UniProtKB/TrEMBL annotation:
Protein name: Amino acid transporter
Signal peptide: none
Residue spans crossing the bilayer: 68-97, 118-142, 162-183, 190-213, 225-247, 287-310
Coiled-coil segments on the chain, per record: none
Keywords recorded for this protein, A-Z: Membrane, Transmembrane, Transmembrane helix
Entry keyword annotation includes Transmembrane: yes
Biased composition regions of type Low complexity, renumbered to the chain: 344-354
Entry keyword Transmembrane: yes
Region named Disordered: 344-363
Top-level taxon: Bacteria
């Protein structure tokens, strides 16, 4: 009987081609070498504004339904509650995540910062539990975003009749298409994100500007809104209190900041001599700041025009503006082709929230799991007791 034939190195590489090579990509080799507690280095990086479009697919796409949710949650107080959200974003979330970008430039995020503060294995297990919640959040967001995109497509007045009743199938097809784009690589995903975000913001800006012209041409709607607001909430302090209570329901896009930090390794910038990627940190801070300013401008203007121009009854379940306030205005004030383009861009942008979530989940979980490895603190006592009680051979 002949001895089994050993595979040479090229044959071993060919045997690991395809899906197996992709699944094992980034793992340490058989030599036992460990790449360390940081995320793997990305070979191809991009300008900060292109990466902003990737995370903007997650952050900006909430404009598709945020004004309607704000109207349902706050009613006529929607602009005031949105203003509170903007102040929280610019004065709270933005400074915090600029600090996170400086402290974890490899894309580990805020959970990795927490891991460094919690000692011993008990803290590590707590961080792993948080990672479970983070991964769940990523997956739920991916699924809900695809479902929201399907809802926009089905509710489009120009959608084909066969869309009705096939919502689950459309959602699965959309998820499969987005997974294919992501697996093709970051270059393709970012290129698509640049086109989607550019078209989405441009079309929404057109809708908002046209709506503002309608408000300017009929200032009576402002007087009617203010009279109804003061009649419903006569005390200004009561208005502020209600706005503070309901604004958490409006904070749908703040998770985009965590996504922006998670895709930080994609930002172009070499390490300095001391190993700190200051150019990448600076680019990411600029990314976060510009994204926050753009989103703040869209949030306050969209909340203002939708509250003034859409009857409150249309925001409720079954109403024409339920979950799609800006799309409602597009169909009211724009030509058929423009309204159809706006709805299509909103549907594509909502569904495309998935791609930045996949690398965010992968980077955060991989980097933090490496950082919480037993080699840092040793195994927990239960594992040590089991090892010590094991009989020697």
């Amino acid at each position: 009987m002949s001895a089994p034939k050993l595979l040479r190195a090229p044959e071993q590489r060919r045997a690991r081609d395809g899906i197996t090579a992709w699944l094992l990509d980034g793992l340490p080799g058989a030599s036992g070498a460990h790449p360390g507690p940081h995320a793997e280095t990305v070979e191809k990086t991009h300008s900060w504004w292109r990466v902003m479009c990737l995370t903007g697919v997650d952050y900006f796409s909430t404009l598709g339904y945020q004004p309607a949710i704000a109207a349902v949650a706050a009613g006529l107080l929607s602009p005031l509650a949105t203003l509170v959200l903007i102040l929280l974003t610019l004065l709270g979330a933005l400074p915090v995540y600029r600090r996170v970008a400086r402290e974890s430039p490899r894309g580990e995020g805020s959970i990795a910062m927490l891991e460094r503060l919690l000692p011993w294995w008990g803290g590590k297990l707590f961080v792993l539990v948080l990672l479970g919640f983070a991964a769940t959040d990523f997956l739920i967001t991916i699924t809900l975003s695809a479902a929201d995109a399907t809802a926009h497509a089905v509710e489009n007045p120009f959608a084909p009749d066969w869309f009705q009743g096939n919502e689950v199938l459309l959602t699965l097809v959309l998820l499969a298409a987005l997974a294919f784009v992501f697996l093709r690589g970051f270059k393709e995903a970012i290129s698509i994100a640049v086109v989607l975000v550019g078209a989405f913001l441009l079309l929404n800006a057109i809708v908002i500007v046209v709506s503002l012209f309608h408000v300017a041409g009929n200032l009576q709607v402002i007087d009617d809104w203010w009279l109804a607001l003061t009649a419903q909430h006569g005390n200004p302090l009561v208005m502020v209190g209600i706005a503070l209570i309901v604004f958490p329901k409006l904070a749908l896009g703040l998770s985009g900041f965590e996504t922006g930090v998670a895709v930080m390794p994609q930002v172009r910038g070499e390490d300095d001599a001391d190993g700190v990627p200051r150019a990448r940190i600076h680019g990411t801070k600029r990314l976060l700041t510009v994204a926050a300013l753009i989103m703040s401008a869209f949030l306050i203007t969209s909340s203002f025009v939708t509250t003034l121009l859409i009857p409150q009854a249309e925001f409720q379940d079954g109403g024409k503006a339920s979950g799609r306030a800006l799309a409602y205005l597009a169909h009211q004030f724009l030509a058929t082709a423009s309204a159809r383009s706006t709805t299509s861009a909103r549907s594509a942008s909502s569904g495309s929230r998935a791609p930045p979530r996949w690398p965010g989940c992968s980077t955060s979980c991989r980097a933090t799991c490496r950082a919480t490895a037993w080699r840092r603190t040793g195994p927990p006592p239960c594992a040590r007791s089991c090892s010590s009680s094991r009989p020697s051979p």
